[in-house]
Design brief:
Length: 294
């Protein structure tokens, strides 16, 4: 009891700090700064392999990327993921974000990225990829189509009925209005399109997430809303994503826990009553969520 009261108070300080930091510094995406180029490159390559692994499991198709028109939501700091997907013969990479985080990424990042790509895939058409990157940076038509849109309106940003695969990494939990995003996905996705996203359900604050990962769930909505800023976790639980997609006509929902608390009692200790029911799966800290557009 005393411990939970203490953690409640500490958590308020972290919520306040996160809001002040966001106000002063703006939105910061990754734990890795773009100056740590090698780490960023490894991260991008790893994310694509990670998605591919879960996508193959979901589709039972070894060639599930080839020829596919991909849309990534909330891509973060660089276009490495898009370039790697194109090198794996995806036909098109679209991406949308509310923050223009790519503007800080240096040309030397991409030079090193292409060098790395050449070493892992000698067949990759680096000249083609460089041309796509240049066209994208100049705002010309490109297979690498990155849009920054403050209203995050996917339906106006991309071509209707064009997308085969939607990917996203640690971004869905930041979205303002999941129902609207799903209804816009319904416009741009083809029938049978697949969505695969890793959703980070726990606190995003680095100093606290390891020892009190569910601290953001200690507060009633009105308290949490006092510290709201764009990009703060929306606190939606897995069942709520599932229900929202199913309501919009998506089928075959699969939820795979990636990171989980092993002590169920601890997972629920101190959480607000809105999250106390076991349907909230408070032991799930991150998940892979897949669904198919019906
Ligand atoms: C934690 S970062 C993850 C970035 C990248 N996917 C990665 O793995 O490094 C969250 C991403 O979601 C975007 N984002 C934050 N708030 C958003 C919002 N309200 N609507 C749409 N995207 C948002 C951010 O700009 C960022 O690209």
């Amino acid at each position: 009891m005393l411990r939970n009261t203490f953690l409640y108070a500490i958590g308020i300080c972290f919520l306040m700090l996160a809001k002040v930091k966001n106000h002063l510094q703006g939105y910061a995406a990754k734990n890795i700064s773009v100056s740590e180029v090698n780490k960023c490159i490894e991260y991008d390559l790893h994310i694509v392999e990670h998605w591919s692994f879960y996508l193959r499991n979901y589709t039972h198709d070894a060639n599930c990327l080839v020829g596919k028109h991909v849309l990534e939501l909330g891509p973060g700091d660089d276009l490495g993921i898009g370039l790697y997907l194109l090198s794996k013969n995806c036909s098109q990479y679209d991406a949308c974000d509310v923050h223009d985080l790519m503007q800080f990424t240096s040309d030397s990042f991409y030079e090193q990225f292409f060098e790395k790509l050449q070493t892992i895939n000698s067949h990759a058409d680096i000249d083609f990829l460089k041309a796509q990157l240049t066209a994208a940076k100049q705002g010309n038509a490109s297979k690498l189509n990155y849009k920054v849109s403050n209203d995050f309106n996917l339906a106006t940003a991309f071509v209707e009925d064009s997308v085969d695969l939607v990917f996203s990494q640690a971004a869905f939990e930041c979205f303002d209005d999941i129902e609207t995003t799903i209804s816009q996905l319904n416009v741009v996705c083809k029938s049978g399109a697949i969505l695969l996203t890793e959703i980070d359900l726990q606190s995003h604050t680095r100093c606290i997430r390891d020892w009190d990962p569910n601290y953001i769930h200690r507060y009633p909505r009105w308290v949490y809303n006092l510290f709201w800023f764009r990009g703060i976790p929306n606190r939606l639980r897995p069942y709520q994503y599932k229900e929202a997609f199913e309501r919009a006509g998506w089928i075959d929902v699969s939820i795979v826990p990636l990171k989980r608390l092993d002590n169920l009692d601890k997972s629920y200790a101190g959480v607000h009553k809105d999250f106390a029911d076991h349907k909230n799966q408070m032991d799930y800290l991150s998940i892979i969520f897949c669904a198919r557009k019906g």
